[in-house]
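S1.2 Input.
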Amino acid sequence: MATIRRRGIAWQVQVRRQGHAPLSRTFRLKANAELWARQKEAEIDRGVLPVDTRSLRSHTLADLLERYEATVVPRKRAADREHYMLRVILRHPIARLSLHRLTPVEVAKYRDDRLAVVSGDTVRRELAIVRHCLEVARTEWGFVLSSNPVRQVKLPRPSSPRERRTTADELERLLAACEATTCCWLPTIIQLAVETGMRRSELLGMRWVDVDLEAHTVFLPNTKNGHPRTVPLSPRALEIIRNTPRCGNIVFGVSANAVRLAWERLKRRAGVSDLRFHDLRHEAVSRFFENGLNMPEVAAISGHKDPRMLMRYTHPKAEAIAIKLGTHEQGHHPRSVPQKHP
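S1.3 Output.
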């Protein structure tokens, strides 16, 4: 922000901006002082003037990440996941670099180090946090960085959409294996996930006050994309909820970590491999389409706003399509028209 003061018969103007050396000049006319101040501020915004690296040398990436974790992450819905990823980033040597040494080369080194350990999608998510942190530092915290180094680095290619569905045999084995567990809520959560397509966080956040047994619906005020929605309940889902005992305001009074651990143990007992809990949502969405629901109806259930993302969750089975084609052919077979002879 520019400061203009009268000094006798002249006007002195000063332009101060964090990350840049102070600029000062004196003019006889106030209008000229104001014009000069606007020009210098515009040059700073465009990155024309050289950056004073003293403030960048005194701060590390860890300083920004810790401030980001304390002030920005708590406002996010995926705060728990970001806290975990930030802990990973902070343990890497890149976090100890001062900001003036944080170059695209160093970011690329971090990318390559992590790719040797985790998947490309995980690295993309971690770098997205760093990129956003640096943007917030530039636009809201007054750190003058010549550029965002993460934007200049090639990110790993996103993995192909997952097409894993749950077979009827796998689901039967999983539910049978639930008989050996003390987690009485686990089979209920699994069946509701397949019947409703709700995410794990949505299932665990269900409140009895939001369940309408007469209307066959459940209202979800807090969802991943921030848009509340009402999920219709199939007859099977309605039966499952009616048979669920009430032990408080929340339908399932368990944590996400408890579900995760119980799910991993259950898969081992059932002999089911390469199946994620989120794959149950894929199965549900695919079943909705196979049962004849159209895209707007399925989107209303699943909560997808982007049709392209919805299609990533849809994996119809070729056998089901073949049966549908056969049914369509039998019901719409053209009648033979007798030939007229002259």
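S1.4 Remarks. The beta strands are 2-7, 10-15, 23-27, 211-212, 217-220, 229-232.
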